[in-house]
């Protein structure tokens, strides 16, 4: 068991699936004590349970519900980390939403490989099937920008206590890119 000073502590937001889930898996398998967070408590607990079933220790892989758009939820996470660990070494801001709505049927009709679309190779071709309603853009900004800012600011005092130098990683994608009106 690592000593308190040699043990590293991490938080990964939006970690119940995809990239965040894999980041948790990799960090935890390297001996980092990780807090997996998710907005949806049921999905977060299911992801944590699945990782425990893969052999990751329940001592070093914990779940905490987090809605990055809710200041009270962010403060609750900061209090949890303060009480549980007293500091933080790694913050991965992975929680995010798309600011777009895609007409899947129209996209299929274009016969475009989703890999090409998601990589941005055919971005100009798919613009006609992508809509960005105001509500989605507002949600995208609230979670992808303000959520990252909110979480980072709340956890920064704990990150500053890292004896090994803290790391902050911000994950982004083309799916969350907002286009300006033409």
From TrEMBL:
Pfam families (alphabetical): adh_short (PF00106)
Alphabetized GO MF terms: oxidoreductase activity
GO CC, alphabetical: membrane
UniProt keyword list: NADP, Oxidoreductase
SUPFAM superfamilies: NAD(P)-binding Rossmann-fold domains
Record Gene3D superfamilies: NAD(P)-binding Rossmann-like Domain
InterPro entries: NAD(P)-bd_dom_sf, SDR_fam
Family according to the record: Belongs to the short-chain dehydrogenases/reductases (SDR) family.
Name the record gives this protein: (+)-neomenthol dehydrogenase-like
Annotated organism of origin: Cannabis sativa
